[in-house]
Design goal:
The protein has 99 residues and is mainly α. Helix content is 59%, strand content 0%. Helix 2 runs antiparallel to helix 3 (69-80) and helix 3 packs across helix 4. The radius of gyration is 28 Å and the shape is rod-shaped.
Amino acid sequence: MGPLILFLLGLVSGVALTLYLQRRNGDRRDLTGPPPRVLPPRFAASTPPTDPAAIDEDEIRRLVDAGRKIEAVKQVRNATGVDLVTAKDIVEAIERKPR
């Protein structure tokens, strides 16, 4: 009879501790259902893409030659409003162009 009482006491205290921690952290998610659907963000939703001629190829080439390819991609994104993959493709196309 003693081990059964210890088991029940442990079970009750475990459930009580779990409920206390959930309330303290504000975690009231239902973990039995499927996870919520996450939609991909819209790139440059606030500003429409501008003319690709706005890209300063000499500046992009200078940044790439200096090993600052990420900054070059950022500059293309700011100038044109395209998404990250497109900006990276533009920078790589400029990099491959013969001088």
